[in-house]
């Protein structure tokens, strides 16, 4: 017989968003928090990420999202007695053309006005920051923020798992979300009364839907439409090489080509997505595209030529057409909200914005406001029109597809 239990908050999904949101909720005074996960904690995108964390967003609020998350990572050890392995080494977003340079200088002006220590670095300084970079005219320079860095994704899963345990969060692995239970409210809107799962019903007045690449399906089960797509993302780790200067080098993002890299295991970890392929799950490595991007890496970082591939994997990454996260109330297809139901996703920026998006979701759920960003309303799921168009966009992102299939 299926069990029936109760909670003050049920969170669907035990990835980075769901994990940290459950910890924030308990710290804010929510008594009984249950997290349901169809697989195992952290088994999905959270453990397959590249771990890049930057505050170099393309708008004031995405700068705030990254800055808040970096400050959170830096304070984890003191707060939780564990951490996600954050390393602040600095991040160069390369400018290859005059147009790239103009965009970078405009972006830096906005970022500095938002309080970020961003500056322009010319080609010579890029080579000092990243000694393995190519000479010649392959790039003009780039924007640089010294506090950007990376986390270790498996260690992040361990960190939020231990924090969940320490805060008394109840985890139900191998349990799938199958629907919401609601009743009619006094305002005419539906009100959450429970969550249906493969293990039975959980009575609750609040639910937070997460799910990363599965979020569209999760929203559909709840009766809503989330403009979230999913695409293949590929990550490669080269064999070690002293020529890469991994103990001192900064990270880099070739924003025009859509390839980034950072130190990992004595070599370079680099990753990319193909914006021209049909959206869909990352079931296998696309070797021809990987080799094409590898040649681009070789041109920019000649020290990677001849290095073997230590490991490579394809993962599924979620995205929105405007490259912004989702955080706020669950809005149904008819435009009405469901009282007590919320949704949250970093939308392809799990390690980078995940903690901040989780914090915003819990703030809005409990207090109706947040101090993490100035315009939380721009993160709502109903910012998209019926064709998936949004009035906002963050230009500093991997070149994900803009198409989102249902």
Please sum up the structure shown.
With 406 residues, the chain is α/β, with parallel strands linked by helices.
What does this structure look like?
The mean pLDDT is 94. The radius of gyration is 21 Å and the shape is globular. It has 2 domains: 183 residues, FAD/NAD(P)-binding domain; 146 residues, D-Amino Acid Oxidase, subunit A, domain 2 (D-Amino Acid Oxidase, Chain A, domain 2). Strands 7-8-6-16-17-18-15-19 form an 8-stranded mixed sheet. Strands 10-3-2-14-21-20 form a 6-stranded mixed sheet. The protein contains 9 helices and 21 strands. The two termini are 34 Å apart. It is of the alpha/beta class. A hairpin with a 4-residue loop joins strand 16 and strand 17. Helix content is 27%, strand content 28%.
């Amino acid at each position: 017989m299926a069990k029936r239990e109760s909670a003050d908050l049920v969170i669907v999904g035990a990835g980075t968003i769901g994990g940290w949101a459950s910890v924030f909720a308990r710290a804010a005074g929510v008594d009984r928090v249950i997290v349901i996960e169809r697989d195992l904690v952290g088994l999905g995108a959270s453990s397959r990420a590249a771990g890049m964390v930057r505050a170099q967003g393309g708008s004031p609020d995405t700068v705030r999202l990254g800055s808040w998350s970096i400050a959170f990572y830096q304070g984890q050890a003191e707060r939780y007695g564990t951490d996600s392995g954050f390393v602040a080494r600095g991040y160069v977003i390369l400018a290859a053309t005059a147009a790239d340079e103009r965009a970078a200088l405009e972006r830096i002006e906005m970022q500095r006005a938002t309080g970020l220590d961003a500056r322009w670095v010319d080609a010579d300084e890029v080579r000092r920051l990243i000694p393995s970079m190519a000479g010649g005219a392959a790039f003009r320079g780039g924007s640089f923020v010294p506090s950007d860095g990376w986390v270790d994704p498996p260690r992040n899963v361990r960190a939020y798992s231990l924090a969940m345990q320490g805060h008394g969060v109840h985890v139900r692995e191998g349990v799938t979300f199958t629907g919401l239970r609601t009743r009619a409210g006094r305002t005419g809107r539906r009100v959450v009364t429970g969550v249906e799962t493969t293990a039975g019903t959980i009575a609750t007045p609040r639910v937070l839907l997460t799910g990363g690449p599965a979020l569209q399906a999760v929203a559909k089960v709840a009766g809503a439409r989330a403009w979230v797509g999913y695409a293949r993302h590929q990550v490669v780790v080269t064999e070690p090489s002293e020529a890469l200067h991994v103990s001192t080098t900064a990270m880099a993002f070739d924003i025009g080509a859509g390839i980034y890299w950072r130190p990992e295991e004595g070599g370079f970890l680099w990753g990319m997505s193909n914006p021209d392929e049909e959206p869909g799950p990352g079931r296998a490595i696309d070797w021809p595209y990987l080799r094409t991007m590898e040649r681009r890496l070789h041109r920019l970082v000649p020290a990677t030529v001849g290095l073997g591939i230590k490991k490579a994997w394809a993962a599924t990454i979620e995205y929105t057409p405007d490259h912004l996260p989702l955080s706020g109330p669950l809005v149904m297809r008819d435009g009405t909200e469901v009282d007590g139901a919320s949704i949250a996703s970093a939308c392809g920026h799990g390690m980078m914005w995940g903690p901040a998006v989780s914090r915003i979701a819990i703030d809005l759920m409990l207090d109706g406001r947040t101090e993490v960003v100035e315009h939380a309303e721009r993160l709502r799921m109903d910012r998209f029109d019926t064709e998936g168009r949004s009035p906002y966009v963050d230009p500093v992102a991997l070149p994900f597809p803009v198409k989102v299939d249902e």
